[in-house]
Amino acid sequence: MTAQQSSSLRLDNVTVKFGGLTVLNRLSVEFGAAPISSLIGPNGAGKTTVFNVFSGLVKPTEGRVLFQGRDITGASPVSIARMGIIRKFQVPTVFPGLSVGDNLKVAARAPRQRHEPGDGDGWAIDDVTDLLQLSGKKQRPAAELSHGERQWLEIGMAFLGRPKFLLLDEPAAGLGPDESEHTARLIKEISAHCAAVVIEHDMSFIRSLGGHIIVLHQGAVLRQGTMEDIEDDAVVRDIYLGRNTHA
């Protein structure tokens, strides 16, 4: 498989309001040009709402959601996942009573988008357990895994859905330095096969991922570019980075 960089996932002038609160404010943002994109910003900036809109959990008050140029606004979460937009939530949702291997088998059998010519046959379970560095624990119940290992397992389960876009919500949350380093390597490996979009609070983790960074503030794009661009921007430092070292 190869990365499908011709794919694009876009919010076009999207506003989301909950009662009198505007969470996204005429937001236009596009993902897919870079293998890895990171979405950062202060608490309440609208990061999770962006993922909720992309995955069909929230319908925009105004604006459109476009996938490969197709308007998918209002599509159901199931249909969106079958298109190839697959989300991993912050808290791992593996099946604790099943083994690592059986969790991956369940994910591999889930309904997914129709293959396009040249997609190939996907990944074997053993290939994915090797990628996750969980081969030695393939027969162990997921309940016995550490928090980091559960994160990796769920990333592997999402990857077996053959995503075109993999949305990762705080994949480094609660991880130690070594686990974070492995998670970053894993995301980089996966990004050779699909576009990865990451929400994360840990700026050192974002730095290790590289790629394109988008800073949200009050539901709109404040700045975007490389980590160097973001760190050198005085407005970003004043509003966001200068307050602390975490998003």
UniProtKB/TrEMBL annotation:
Family annotation (CDD domains): ABC_Mj1267_LivG_branched
Q: Which InterPro entries match?
A: ABC_AA/LPS_Transport (IPR051120), ABC_transporter-like_ATP-bd (IPR003439), P-loop_NTPase (IPR027417)
Instruction: Select a single GO molecular function from the record's annotations and give it.
Output: ATP binding
Q: Which residues form the signal peptide?
A: none
What GO cellular component term, any one, is given? plasma membrane
Keywords for the protein's UniProt record, in alphabetical order: ATP-binding, Nucleotide-binding, Transport
Top-level taxon in the UniProt lineage: Bacteria
Q: Which protein are we looking at?
A: ABC transporter ATP-binding protein
Q: Name one Pfam family in it.
A: ABC_tran
Instruction: Locate the coiled-coil region(s) and give their ranges.
Output: none
State whether keyword Transport applies. yes
